[in-house]
Amino acid sequence: MGQKYQLPFKEGQTAEARCLEEGYRGAWFRCKVQEISRRGGHWSALLQYFDYPDEKWAWTELYQMGQLMLRPEYPPVYLKNKVSDVSSNSDATLVFDGTWREGDLVDWLCDDCYWSGQVTKLLDNGKAKIELLPPPLGEGKTYDAFVKDLRPSLDWSPERGWFMPASQVGESSRQYPNLLKLVSQGHAIVKGKRGRPARTGSS
């Protein structure tokens, strides 16, 4: 990263921060950007963690292990059968049908943070078996999670904004989370035939 600050994060912005510390690898924490500064040759952000009020504000390098450690606040989510207009004040709005399938990439809410992983098996009693991302970007463990605590995983980059990740299932098939529409910058991405995303006009 060059000397000039080129990322879109601003002081006072609500965001999510990734952790690569062992024991919390692959987890995203809700936070507020209090300050951005170049420290030790690297751009860093001073973060206040909303769900850990006893934690001191901490400086986090914005790039670690080739990964961007900060992203904007997760976009609002609406169930398909409960929304007629997906427009919102957010840069992106997610419309979801509320169902899950094996292979879906998810974020699991546990211990006041979101852990990135994949649904490996649907269980009874409203649960699913979740496998966290493998090391070094995740803890690689498997847990039984309530599906009410899941949200679809999304990727974000300064160039593309929010977009749907793809998981590789088997040798050649590509499977996408059950995302029906992602509205961003005036365009809608809807799940097309055979699970491939198709771009439409503005919603």
UniProtKB/TrEMBL annotation:
<feature type="domain" description="Agenet">
    <location>
        <begin position="98"/>
        <end position="158"/>
    </location>
</feature>
<dbReference type="InterPro" id="IPR014002">
    <property type="entry name" value="Agenet_dom_plant"/>
</dbReference>
<protein>
    <recommendedName>
        <fullName>Agenet domain-containing protein</fullName>
    </recommendedName>
</protein>
<dbReference type="InterPro" id="IPR008395">
    <property type="entry name" value="Agenet-like_dom"/>
</dbReference>
<dbReference type="Pfam" id="PF05641">
    <property type="entry name" value="Agenet"/>
</dbReference>
